[in-house]
Design brief:
Elements lengths: L1 H7 L8 E3 L4 E3 L4 E3 L5 E3 L2 H28 L4 E5 L5 H13 L2 E4 L10 H14 L17 E7 L7 H9 L6 E8 L7 H7 L5 E2 L3 E4 L7 H10 L5
Helix pairs in contact: 1-2, 3-7
The protein binds flavin mononucleotide.
Length: 232
Amino acid sequence: MIIFSQISATTVPDNAIIGISNMPIDNGHTTFYHFGVLKFRHTAKMNRILIALITVFMTNSIGAQAQEMAGKPPKILVAYYSWGGNTRVVARQIQSLTGSDIFEIKPTKPYPEDYNICVKQAKKEIDDGYKPELSGTVENWSRYDIIFIGSPNWWSTMAPPVATFLTSHDSSGKIVIPFCTHGGGRQANLFKDIAKLCPNATMKNGLVVSGNLAQRAKPDVAKWLRELEIIK
Ligand SMILES: Cc1cc2nc3c(=O)[nH]c(=O)nc-3n(C[C@H](O)[C@H](O)[C@H](O)COP(=O)(O)O)c2cc1C
């Protein structure tokens, strides 16, 4: 970069000699930094050739770097909460199809095992906007480019532990892809509410799976991942 900016802004007279070395060279007009072994008598024509060569060199190396970065496979995490197991099944299907890492969101205090008591508690927590404490956080969160986030439909929105997770893990600049399982109400407000908690992420189309079909959902999961161009 130094070479390019110095040469393109050159004030070198036509007859200046440019020695190519790894040391700064001061010809009285400007200082050059060069790396290499060649030596040129510097004419106006040579100046143009040099600039062209250096431009090609710089363009190629930046291009190669960009290509290398673009070609790097994205790092994917599947994070999910599951009370009864359905969402876990789908999360594992995504994991096995993408080769991603997986993280189970767990509240410090598990929800009641009794369905009706759990439903009642969940209603109160959601109405109050309560965010339960979680028992862990994702290590190396910053390394992930794509986050799949899964939740059961609870009262037409995400389960509260998922809300805690999203408010405690900054998804800025990441791709966030939601999925849910449900008991008949499909995604309702769930994906919309997840997007609200990821204001600086790029949201992609979510997957909706009926809870009682989770075990047989793998072909649908694969189709969805292909549509998202995550797998071929
Ligand atoms: C507290 C609670 C609230 C629920 N609310 C809804 C709802 O509003 N709409 C719906 O379709 N299903 C609802 N369900 C059913 C679950 O979304 C469904 O069974 C889901 O597949 C459960 O996922 P899991 O096994 O991963 O916990 C609710 C279940 C629970 C436990």
